[in-house]
Design brief:
single chain; alpha/beta; Rossmann fold; globular; binds glutamine
Length: 551
């Protein structure tokens, strides 16, 4: 039987439970175990696909098209594994399943209740990943939200039952808490942790390990106090102090022998992990020999979590380039309006060596993105467009190079005379919003001799998507005549996946989301190339082309 680790959080949200789970997964994998991570979110949405990035940050997309919580991105990045829909569950999905069964009469006349029906379904889902893959050694299940929330109760009750119904060494519970530092008193405080653990114990779950998030080292005295009040061994109180890079967390956990103690608790006999490579990588992230600045022009820039995977992809891409990437976040709306002239754009982009325009939905911020793209194109600044970023690049080129002044996308400009971006055929007639976009991994054919080919070095790649609109094939010929190269297409040739401008030092855009596949030890080729091009641009190694396509 697989072993189970349940991870809960208390005191406050945003403790970094996802990173803690991912880091633990990383260490267990390094100990030779096959680990799978899953996240259970107590909210009622069936999945986060219909939510704004302002709610829970970006929507992460998996190979199978699942739209899920951004923590699954951390899980994939830290363990270098591909997850699937079954690894993200919400209360909404639990109820959807139960209600469908009820309508079919499968409960045989019984009253359907939270206990046992909802908790049974949660327990089934706890075990599903190991049941569908018998080679799995450890399943780490993160429960979203904070202990004490009404909506997380059924999940905690299911864990209590699971622990009761299985042997003690079959599972372990890790609880994350906050140990605040009170500056005026010059002290850290353990009381919130005590209260949070009391709450958890009142539900019937005694945590085996505590990870105390803190900005100050907790020290032996506080550790002993926490252990005593929370009823666990002192060595099982892990100091979860703030670190400069999330990729350090596995190392700080390992220093405290967390992985060794957890394996012992679960009766897993495994060798010590070899973290040399990981340590070397972290050292380079923390102290890179070089730095380069890349501007990201988006509309959710106030909330960094909205572009989490992009931020991480830049950190990964810096590693082989031996450079730290300073990410300069620019609100695309700040580039709009008559008063924003070329001088202002020069000021905004001064010192930026590359520009990225990320994905997005709706009309807000589009003119600013188009402006940023024009600036990058005309000034030979390396540019990468992602999804909406590709669509905006096509609009910009259509307006400025093809002379189609009012070119636009049917998404936010339904009356445009030149819909260079239009709704995909398969999207026509779809009315429901949840789970209906073109989602997940699709193959893309890469044209030989192009920049895309230089980046990938392969004729076919698989990339993840999340969109409804696409390049309108009626305009493809005109674009090609104007110098645009469609260097990545769907295998049937019908769908534009990558476009580029060979007359520009580095101008490339993708309809898919490369950031979703970037891993610290396998940076995404497009991000890696953008960072390389930005360094070259900074050093003046690339001839400043005007970026104006011929024709
Ligand atoms: N809104 C665009 C579409 O649906 C782009 C989506 C995105 O950037 N993820 O096609």
């Amino acid at each position: 039987m697989a072993k189970y680790v349940f991870v809960t959080g208390g005191v406050v949200s945003a403790l970094g439970k996802g990173i803690a789970c991912a880091s633990l997964g990383n260490l267990l994998k390094a100990r030779g175990l096959k680990v799978v991570l899953q996240k259970f979110d107590p909210y009622l949405n069936v999945d986060p696909g219909t939510m704004s990035p302002f709610q829970h940050g970006e929507v992460f997309v998996l190979d199978d098209g699942a739209e899920c919580d951004l923590d699954l991105g951390h899980y994939e990045r830290f363990t270098d594994t591909d997850l699937a829909q079954i690894h993200n569950l919400t209360s909404g999905r639990v109820y959807e399943t139960i209600l469908a069964r009820e309508r079919k009469g499968e409960y045989l006349g019984r009253t359907v209740q939270v206990i046992p029906h909802v908790t049974d379904e949660i327990k089934r889902r706890i075990m599903l990943p190991a049941q569908s893959d018998p080679t799995v050694d450890v399943v780490i299940t993160e429960i979203g939200g904070t202990v004490g929330d009404i909506e997380s109760l059924p999940f905690l009750e299911a864990i209590r039952q699971f622990r009761l119904e299985n042997e003690p060494e079959d599972s372990a519970s890790l609880h994350l808490t906050l140990v605040p530092y009170i500056a005026a008193a010059g002290e850290i405080k353990t009381k919130p942790t005590q209260h949070s653990v009391r709450e958890l114990r009142s539900i019937g779950i005694q945590p085996d390990f505590l990870m105390c998030r803190t900005c100050q080292p907790i020290g032996d005295e506080a550790r002993r106090k926490i252990a005593l009040f929370c009823n666990l061994p002192v060595a099982n109180v892990i100091d979860g102090r703030d670190v400069a890079s999330i990729y350090e967390v596995p190392l700080t956990m390992h220093e405290q022998e967390f992985d060794r103690r957890l394996c012992r608790r679960l009766g897993l006999d495994t060798p010590e992990p070899d973290l040399t490579e990981w340590r070397r990588m972290v050292a380079l992230i923390l102290d890179p020999p070089d730095r380069v600045r890349i501007a990201i022009v988006g509309k959710y820039v106030e909330l960094k979590d909205a572009y989490k995977s992009i931020s991480e992809a830049f950190i990964h891409a810096g590693i082989p380039n031996r450079a730290g990437v300073d990410q300069i976040w620019i609100d695309s709306e700040s580039l709009e309006g008559e008063e924003v002239g070329d001088a202002r754009l020069r000021e905004v982009f001064a010192g930026c060596h590359g520009v990225l325009v990320p994905g997005g939905f709706g009309d807000r911020g589009i003119p600013g993105k188009v402006r940023a793209i024009r600036y990058a194109r005309e000034n030979g600044i390396p540019f990468l467009g992602i999804c909406l970023g590709l669509q905006c690049a096509m609009i910009e080129i259509a307006r400025d190079v093809l002379g189609l002044e009012r070119a636009g996308s049917a998404e936010f400009d339904p009356d445009t005379p030149h819909p260079v971006i239009h709704l995909m055929d398969k999207q026509k007639g779809i009315v429901n919003l949840g789970g209906t976009m073109r989602l997940g991994a699709y193959p893309c054919r890469v044209e030989n001799g192009t920049l895309a080919w230089q980046c990938y070095g392969r004729p076919e790649v698989s990339e993840r998507h999340r969109h409804r609109y696409e390049v309108n094939n009626d305009y493809r010929e005109a674009f090609t005549r104007a110098g645009v190269v469609f260097s990545g297409l769907s295998p049937d040739g019908r769908l534009v996946e990558i476009m580029e401008l060979p007359t520009h030092p580095f101008f490339i855009a993708a309809q898919f989301h490369p950031e979703l596949k970037s891993r610290p030890r396998r940076p995404h080729p497009l991000f890696r190339a953008l960072v390389g091009a930005a360094i070259a641009h900074r050093d003046g190694a690339v001839a400043r082309a005007t970026g104006r396509a011929a024709g």
